[in-house]
Amino acid sequence: MEMQQFYxxxxxxxxxxxxxxxxxxxxxxxxxxxxxxxLFPNLTDGISWLSFGRLRPLHTNAVIFAFVGNAMFAxxxxxxxxxxxxxxxxxxxxxxxxxxxxxxxxATAITLPMGYTSSKEYxxxxxxxxxxxxxxxxxxxxxxxxxxxxxxxxxxxxxxxFYLATFVTVAVLHxxxxxxxxxxxxxSYSVYAGVQDALVQWWYGHNAVAFFLTTPFLGLMYYxxxxxxxxxxxxxxxxxxxxxxxIFIYIWAGPHHLLYSxxxxxxxxxxxxxxIMLIAPSWGGxxxxxxxxxxxxxxxxxxxxxxxxxxxxxxxxxxxxxxPMLSLKNVxxxxxxxxxxxxxxxxxxLAWNGFLAFGxxxxxxxxxxxxxxxxxxxxxxxxxxxxxxxIIYTLPMYVAGFVQASMWKQFNPDGTLMYGNFLETVTxxxxxxxxxxxxxxxxxxxxxILVYNIYKTIRANxxxxxxxxxxxxxxxxxxxxxxxxxxxxxxxxxxxxxxxLATVAILIxxxxxIIPTLMVDSNIPTIASVKPYTPLELEGRDLYIREGCVGCHxxxxxxxxxxxxxxxxxxxxxxxxxxxxxxxxxxxxGPDLLRVGxxxxxxxxxxxxxxxxxxxxGSIMPGYKWLFDNEAMDFSDIEAKMKTMQKLGVPYSDxxxxxxxxxxxxxxxxxxxxxxxxxxFVKSYENSRKAAEAKGExxxxxxxxxxxxxxxxxxxLGTDIKVKDNxxx
Length: 729
Description:
The chain is mainly alpha-helical and about 725 residues long. It has helices at about 10-35, 50-85, 90-115, 125-150, 160-175, 195-210, 215-230, 235-250, 265-275, 280-290, 295-300, 305-325, 330-335, 340-370, 375-410, 425-430, 430-460, 485-490, 495-520, 535-545, 560-565, 600-610, 610-615, 640-645, 655-660, 660-675, 680-695, 705-715, 725-729; strands spanning about 5-10, 180-185, 185-190, 465-470. Helices cover about 65% and strands about 5% of the residues.
């Protein structure tokens, strides 16, 4: 059989590795700044684009899509070529994929701090960037599938199964979750509302973790761990079971993020059942990975690459055991909204994704430069300081979570809350936040060690950009099963059939959960007293979204005595029918705000947003001084916003839309008049007027400023369901 010579494309792999390292440093640095802001909330005082609410989604997206995403692509482009014995289908598509993905990252890094956000967890980018993501993802898919078609290896190795499932599922998740109706170039409203939006979001959010942070990295594990250990995968049969059970079960588990919420109970229970079932395939994969190292554990002691892989797989096992446990309702009742969830997420991100990426980079670079790693000692030091950083980061967060949960739920003998002031729980866990910051410093220090080690390795050797290889041309055989050939080996040489079956496997769970919630009205009962937001309140809600308030405040009162006592009546599905997007939140750094309307007067909100510590001693909330600037808020899009909402089913009349500007002025002026009840406000207001006149600047009345719109929204929250109670009185 004639051998064919060809070249592997290492250039694209090198580019993605460099991007991985760059954005790893950036994403972790932003995370470290956020950890610091818990201790020094006014560190970036007055700088809107450096506020916690705007930086948090930047951190999560930078780590997930920039750091982990680039690492994923680097590993896929390297392994895919060698598993298929073929150069990538198109060098142009490879380059387009790389530069397109980096431009998306840069666009995200610019727009999120500017406040352009959809507020959807792990999908905060606005609609033009969403479209760009879909297009570049298709480019990646075409390049991968094209390479599979022209392969010189008949059977698709297990890693490629996971790559194909990743491509298909992420595309489905991204498209359906991102469906929205644009208002302007950087503003849109979700086509889903309230409970429906929440279900679709966490169907996406949970499975973004599953099919972006897990399945492709499992594929990388199946390639790089055997390579580094110089051992075959422990069990081929277990690989088959692991793959099909994982992709089928994972897609069902999203609702476990919404337990005890306004989501229908049947959907919650489905999520719980399948979440528990996830333990089996997840640990099957972990066992398959660890047992691949049988016979080489003595090598683990000295080889930093294997050290990273062992801790990565162990972290995967820990996170995938903890996830199903957190989906149990009695455990979720304690953990949800606390720092326990933060710890859980970071065990997966720092150990599983981070360490697998580091091990892969340390293994790849020497082979792509045909030289030795500059310093094994430094790589080992990176491993130990990184591991210690993970421990020091996560353990205090677990403690903080338990402290928060226990303090929130404790009662005095007379039936009152023992810690009625939410801030009492905040001040208790400040030492844990210090420990988190220290652990984060250690982890990112390890990243800097990697940067130095890789830089010195590349400088000392010569990078091989086009690596010569040879393999015989793939001979055509029967498309049907050969005599004695079992089903799965046949399927492994049929990429189209494999992809179709994987698509069917992931669609079943999503369809059964989402379609009834969208189509059956009884799942979302309406409440007659719940009305659409006024134009000013709608603008205020958009400000709330822009500032990322949902990152620290939930809007979901669960049916627990402690929460009803603290916040008010439990949440009902019908309350959220006009909420696009939903804002239930996933963390309570501050108290729930669903029932905050009319709880405080306008002056309290005004002073609280200017200087939270002045109204709430011990608060770690930053001030939002730019909302008070002597600048008029832009209400020019309000008619377009209301028309878009109208198209989506919100019952705004044409007259209400036409009179929107007048309605804004009337409601805003009333709030400004209320503010004049505070002598301190009157004094400072007059002083600011005089200061503007002295500078020769036009003075903007308070009712035209952003803070008034935000106050209007906050004062509306939860008041609709109080209508009946007021009537009774």
